[in-house]
Specification:
mainly beta; 3-stranded antiparallel beta sheet; 1 helix; globular
């Protein structure tokens, strides 16, 4: 999630909350993934801003040992 606004961040490929950046697929104005000029691959962008990684409840329960 964005640590400043509290908004969820979507389409994330990679993130580092210690350094404060994430890489995500870029969306076009129609809400679909943006394609490269040759339309051969999806465009991604690195965004540098404070983020907070929150694990979903189901993922946290996978790491719990009885």
């Amino acid at each position: 999630m964005d640590a400043v606004s509290g908004e969820p961040i979507t389409n994330v490929i990679e993130a580092d909350d210690t350094e404060g950046w994430y890489v995500a697929y870029k969306l076009g104005p129609d809400g679909k993934f943006a394609l490269s000029a040759d339309r051969d691959s999806v465009v991604s962008e690195r965004v540098e801003r404070p983020i907070k990684i929150i694990a979903p409840e189901w993922a946290v329960s996978l790491t719990a040992f009885p």
